[in-house]
Design brief:
CATH superfamily of the largest domain: SGNH hydrolase
GO cellular component, one term: cytosol
Family: Belongs to the 'GDSL' lipolytic enzyme family.
GO molecular function: hydrolase activity, acting on ester bonds
Pfam families: Hpt (PF01627), Lipase_GDSL (PF00657)
Helix content: 40-55%
Strand order of the largest sheet: 2-1-3-4-5
Radius of gyration: 24 Å
Subcellular location: Cytoplasm, Cytosol
CATH class of the largest domain: Alpha Beta
Number of domains: 2
Strand content: 5-15%
Number of helices: 17
Structural class: alpha/beta
Number of strands: 7
Length: 465
């Protein structure tokens, strides 16, 4: 039932009926106010029904008072914005534009569409709330995150490494404009996924002071920028190698036992959604630039070496008690701005050789995951295809509202990834990151992460059961 509720909710976002304001309302809902969002929505529909009646009467008079109509619609737009009624809000905006232009026909036509969108949203939300009540109080599965800079929420802030993002302009669009250590201007794809699953706060970075007490009950983030499947490269970068992330996971479980008891701790770990993101830095920041590797290993042999380490990692976290694991595929590494700069030479567009390598690695990853699934009957493992949605964004940015997909927003957007390059003094940093697929030369912007999160959620529903 919870899975069906989550699917319906996600469809309301995917189809554009709701926006992130609805999520913000849900964050205000707690045990003391378990029906807060439904009550707010009921008030909205009651008030908007009154406004619709007033506008209907005003339109029936024949001679239009555009100032009065605009005033009514201003109220309507405000209340629609407050609950995240995206399509209704858009129609309100169009109606007001027609009012200012004195276009009576446009007002009438738009108002009919507005009433249609309003009625559709009401029916869909009533169905959603009815199912949510039947499903009962939502138990949010804890989230454990492992891997690299794509999912690091601040562990590297506590390490002597160049690979840190705890300074501007990182985090400029995050809550309170704070640089938390996320390699992004705002939220990561995993943050957005957590919100959709019902988290009101994000699982903390394990090395941070927040990773203590009851905060551990919602999970923890063990990821470290510049880490990956190749532990030697992680150590050279002063990052947390995967084997150490597993050790921290074991330590986390021992802390959990002290808080919740052994039986409850086992249940939390078993029910947790474990996410792993790794591989990109192994290739882009290690293999392709390190002659000690690319002169000794073929790219295929190096990929097989990484896959062996992936399988070892899965077996290790399984031994701790993890049973629901999602791992991201490699992205189209040849489309990363840094890869274009370093390896593109005179090639127009993405570096095809790197993309081919990524696709071949992803085939190995899927095969290894299938093998592990057969080996452990009670293991649920999903490989999230990040390659396809990110490649589509890069090839057709305008389709999703982007204007730039070849370089990042920070600085020149072609090589920036660390404090030496993406920092408050970086020249040329863009003013509006929502138009950029990439934030820096390697990492997606928050706007792109929202699209990637939709892919994560859509592919990962089997982990929610």
């Amino acid at each position: 039932m919870q899975r069906q509720v989550a699917l319906i909710k996600q469809s309301l976002f995917d189809q554009g009926y709701l926006d992130e304001q609805f999520m913000e309302l849900e964050e205000l809902q707690d045990d003391a106010n378990p029906n807060f969002v439904e009550e707010v929505s009921a008030l909205y529909f009651k008030d908007s029904a009154r406004l619709i009646n007033n506008i209907d009467q005003a339109l029936e008079r024949g001679s239009f008072d555009f100032n009065r109509l605009d005033s009514y619609m201003h109220q309507f737009k405000g209340s629609s914005t407050s609950i995240g009624a995206s399509k209704v809000k858009a129609e309100c905006t169009t109606f007001r534009e027609y009012c200012r232009a004195g276009n009576a026909e446009g007002c009438l036509r738009t108002f009919q569409q507005l009433k249609k969108e309003h009625s559709t949203l009401r029916k869909k939300l009533e169905h959603y709330f009815q199912l949510a009540r039947q499903a009962g109080p939502k138990e949010t599965a804890p989230m454990m995150t492992f891997g690299d800079s794509v999912v690091d929420v601040g562990n590297n802030n506590y390490l002597p490494t160049l690979f840190r993002a705890d300074y501007p302009p990182y985090g400029r669009d995050f809550a309170n404009h704070k640089a938390t250590g996320r390699f992004c201007n705002g939220k990561l794809a995993t943050d957005i996924t957590a919100e959709t699953l019902g988290f009101t706060k994000y699982p903390p970075a394990y090395l941070s002071p927040e990773a203590s007490g009851k905060n551990l009950l919602i999970g923890a983030n063990f990821a470290s920028a510049a880490s990956g499947y190749d532990d030697k490269a992680a150590l050279l970068n002063h990052a947390i190698p995967l084997y150490q992330q597993v050790e921290y996971f074991k330590e986390y479980k021992s802390k959990l036992i002290k808080i919740a008891g052994s039986k409850k701790a086992d249940s939390i770990i078993k029910g947790a959604i474990c996410l792993l993101s790794a591989g990109s830095s192994d290739f882009v920041q290690n293999y392709y630039v390190n002659p000690l590797l690319y002169k000794v290993y073929t790219v295929d042999a190096y990929g097989s070496f990484l896959i062996d380490n992936f399988s070892t990692f899965i077996k290790q976290v399984y031994a701790v008690g993890a049973r629901k694991i999602g791992v991201t595929s490699l992205p189209p590494t040849g489309c990363l701005p840094a890869a274009r700069t370093l390896f593109g030479f005179h090639e127009k567009g993405c570096v095809s050789r790197l993309n081919t390598d990524a696709q071949n690695f992803n085939k190995k990853l899927n095969a290894a995951a299938s093998k592990l699934q057969k080996q452990y009957s009670d293991l649920k493992i999903v490989v999230f295809d990040i390659y396809s949605p990110l490649y589509d964004l890069v090839q057709n940015p305008s389709k999703s509202g982007f204007t730039e997909a070849t370089k990042g927003c920070c600085g020149t957007g072609t090589v920036e990834t660390t404090s030496l390059l993406c920092n408050p003094k970086s020249f040329g940093t863009c003013s509006n990151a929502t138009q950029y697929v990439f934030w820096d030369s390697v990492h997606p912007s928050e706007a792109a992460n929202e699209i990637l999160a939709t892919a994560l959620i859509g592919q990962g529903f089997s982990l929610l059961g």
